[in-house]
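Format notes (please read before filing issues)

Several people have asked whether sequences and structure tokens are stored in separate files. They are not. Every record keeps both together, in the order shown below: the sequence lines, then the token lines. Line labels are part of the format and must not be stripped during preprocessing.
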Amino acid sequence: MLTALDFGCGNGRIITRSIEAGIGEFQGADTYYGDGEIFARDGETVPPATRERIKLLMPGDALPFDDDTFDFVCSNQVFEHVVDLRGTIAELARVTRPGGVHVHLFPTLELVKEAHLGVPLIHRLPAGKRAAWARLFYSRAYYAKETASFEEWWQEMGTFLAEKTFYRPRAEYDAAFGRHFHVTHVEHQKLEYHLGRSRLRPIRALPRLVPTRLELMRVGTAVHLRA
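Then the structure lines:
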């Protein structure tokens, strides 16, 4: 049976779906910062069977799994929040069986529109200049409509960007992953999957015409790793 880990699983949506579909043995791990009940996020009710499969870690904790546990490991928008990149990748390599496969999606420094605030290029600015720049885009920024003022929005989102988000160039990720895995970039395959669901044939052919660098600037990177 396939054994899998959703790294940075949040409220365990993938785990729940795997249980419902009877696919493999999925486990989850996520970092808990003590800022609320993790299972209440996104307004979803998390089934007890899913909760039992999620391990909550404090920042810097080792993964609570034996060596060579998982055939498959995945994450979505997680690695930009990892402080110790090399240590985290080494831990993921430790719990992966020989020949195991990973798929990770995450934004990199090459991104034009920052992935969490929706403000162009703010992640490339010095911390002291971010607030003034962000104010120019506040009306169109992510989650702005949920706040009463720019100051309220920036207090939360600016702090999140400064303290819990770390943008690195794609080359740095490749070097870190390459210490333990064979790395293949699959940005085009990811784009092809999403556009392949369109009914318009010209759009389905678009991935073959989009340069990889443009995808990095648009949504970030997608990597396939083999142990």
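For reference, the curators noted about this record: The mean pLDDT is 90. The CA atoms of residues 89 and 144 lie 34 Å apart.
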